[in-house]
Amino acid sequence: MMKALRVEGTLQAIEPIVKFAIQAAKEAGLDDQATFRIRLAVDELITNIIMHGYLEAGRSGDIIISSEIDEEGLKIYLEDYGVSHDPRNTPPPNLDAPLEERPLGGLGIYLALWAIDQFHYEHDRNGNRSVLVLERPCPSKTC
Amino acid sequence: MNVDIQPEKDVITVKISGELNRQTVPDLQDKLLPLISTGCKILMDMRDVSYISSAGLRVFLLIYRQVDHEHGRIVLTGLQEMIHDTMSITGFLDFFQTYPTVAEGLNALKQPAL
């Protein structure tokens, strides 16, 4: 069964969306580590969508988060109507730079994509859609 | 998030509890940055920190720079596994010294700097 939450794309949306993701992780039976990972990815990606897709671009619109549990694992869908940006095209941070020289931003998307097992992104004139997948831990030693 | 500051004569111990995210870190930053002074020694007890996002890491970056600028020292203790992994994958643990317990962290701060 698919569950969904629709909220206006402002900074106030982060908290209910993150709560939705934590609840979905709980319902999928994920352990604390996996819950941390999906939460981190949703937190970072949704913050990015709100900041860059909506606020900085002077746009407004909703964000829809929905979740689905299937044989592959937990899938979280994020839909928005802000500026399109595939997070995978974000330049990676320079992790070799000393902390003295690091820019203050740029780690969020890197962490989000690190935290989850699969990431898909598509956009068309109706909006943007990200799919975050956390694979179900292997139930037996055969896989 | 809760911040408990114990300023002893040699080492300032800061126990942080809860979640370090965009909503909570401005408070953390406001409480921590004024503690940093020339040659300060700071221990951050992180055992009860259950979550950190890039917003939390950004505060650690600011703290590190300020401590470094003031020729002080800072150690982190008791990182939970996912906090450790998040700080490791972003290269923060190449700079921050970490110890399993507060006692080990205090002991390290008593030794001369490396």
Features:
A: 143 residues, five-stranded antiparallel beta sheet, 5 strands, 33% helix, globular, B: alpha/beta, 31% strand
A few lines on this structure:
With 143 residues, chain A is an alpha+beta fold. Chain A has 3 helices and 5 strands. Chain A has a 5-stranded antiparallel β-sheet with strand order 1-2-3-5-4, with helices on one face.
Description:
The complex is a heterodimer of chains A (143) and B (114). Chain A has 143 residues and is of the alpha+beta class. In chain A, 33% of the residues lie in helices and 27% in strands. In chain A, α1 packs antiparallel against α2 and α2 crosses α3. The longest helix of chain A is centred in the first third of the chain and has 24 residues. The model of chain A has no long low-confidence stretch (mean pLDDT 92). Chain B is built from four helices and five strands. Chain B is globular and about 35 Å long. Chain B has a five-stranded mixed β-sheet with strand order 1-2-3-4-5. Chain B starts with a strand and ends with a helix. By secondary structure, chain B is of the alpha/beta class. Chains A and B meet through α1, α2 and α3 of A and α2 and α3 of B.
